[in-house]
Amino acid sequence: MKSLLRPCARSIVPRAASGFLAIGFPARNCRIWNPRRGLTTSKEVDKKLVEKLPLAGIRVLDMTRVLAGPYCTQILGDLGAEIIKIEHPTRGDDTRSWGPPDAPYTDGVERQFPGESAYYLSVNRNKKSLGLSFNNPAGISVLHKLVQRCDVLVENYLPGSLSKYNLDYETLSKINPSLIYASVTGYGQTGPYSDRAGYDVMVEAEMGLMHITGERDGPPVKVGVAVTDLTTGMYTVIGVLAALYARRDTGLGQWIDASLSDCQVASLANIASSGLISGKKDSGRWGTAHASVVPYRAYKTKDTNIAVGGCNDKLYGILCDKIGKPEWKADSRFVTNALRVKNRDTLDRIIEDVLKTKTTKEWLDIFEGSGMPYAAVNDIQGTLNHEHVLARNMIEKVDHPSCGPIKLVNHPVKYSRAEPKIRSPPPMLGEHTDEVLRELLDYDEAQIQDLKDQKTIA
């Protein structure tokens, strides 16, 4: 098989003024792509670096905005990939204007936004920002040159809309046959809805999630976060990693078609399986309760709410003992789960009547060590300041160059060897434009200034 020219591995260098590590650009003498390894054959590849950051040496061209796409590329960045984020040179990612809240600027520089929006900050760490307009030949040329030096491209434009800029998979795969091109859309590249714009709440409604979410006798509601966007971002990461793995042996890239609609249907999991197997109408909304297990839900306490799970006969017995009602274990209405489901309304009512006599904290202390599942229903600040969340290092403070110290949610998966982490804060709009053009594409200062004069970059 003919070897393909690929970028050589990068090294990690300290980020000035912040103390955090940022990924630098490769040396100019690029090495030969080794399809069996997925990195370069260069001796410059640091195996210790790959051990800590498994995607070190992988470069991603990020042409996504808002949530699903940026969430995908942020995960790839956490794992060590170098992410070059393409943004409109003046507006940037849509979410830059999705405040408040915003992290206010502290460097005294006046800008079009009051600060960096919390929404934008949530999904754009470990990235470099290139402010670039590609509605002209000069901008398209820059992107074509970047494609030659990238392993992965992730985009979330409507199907077919990038073809008019010669940025579609068919065109770019000829420029770089090993390119992995991931398209994130609402409804996919095919099918009767493929031309529809994809928004999380619409897909939640269309693909069943909203129908099964909400109180038993209440209206359908959306999930509190854009869970379909997040699920799609994670599925896209899986697709990219699978394609990178396949490329080790083939040397070839491929086109990944990831859609919110498909991922939402897949995420119906056992609910979808029940419908397929039974052929019957679903059982509707259950609030915090479970369709086939009782008691298993959130109940009111004296001050807030607590979730408890008497998921089987043994756990139900523990609950009865702990709330001071051991006689309920032998009550003929409740001795089996089937009977508890049948008498759900009665059992839920009398359990809640007891739980309302004490505070959530008092019940937590009573249930501690019992082996029964239970949990306080926390608000967001309660979660972010939760002792277990902090002990698991899920909140990290980083030094933003224009906003000062900010807190971000950390990468959630822990490894015995790898160390995915926040190496650089979410970039300012166009923060790395000159750096990318000069150090990666070999543009000189005159060429960069010419692109600025044309308003192609910023």
Describe the structure concisely.
33% of the residues lie in helices and 15% in strands. It contains 17 helices and 15 strands. Mean pLDDT is 91; it is low at 1-23 and 25-43.
Task: Please characterize this protein's 3D structure.
The structure is a single chain. The chain is α/β, with parallel strands linked by helices. It is built from 17 helices and 15 strands. It has helices at 47-52, 68-78, 118-122, 137-148, 169-175, 200-206, 227-250, 260-267, 269-278, 313-322, 337-342, 344-355, 360-367, 380-384, 387-391, 433-440, 445-453; strands at 12-14, 21-23, 59-63, 82-87, 102-104, 115-117, 127-131, 152-155, 180-185, 255-259, 296-300, 305-309, 374-376, 395-400, 404-409. β3, α2 (68-78) and β4 (82-87) form a beta-alpha-beta unit. It starts with 11 loop residues before the first strand and ends in a 5-residue tail after the last helix. Residues 1-23 and 25-43 have low confidence and may be disordered.
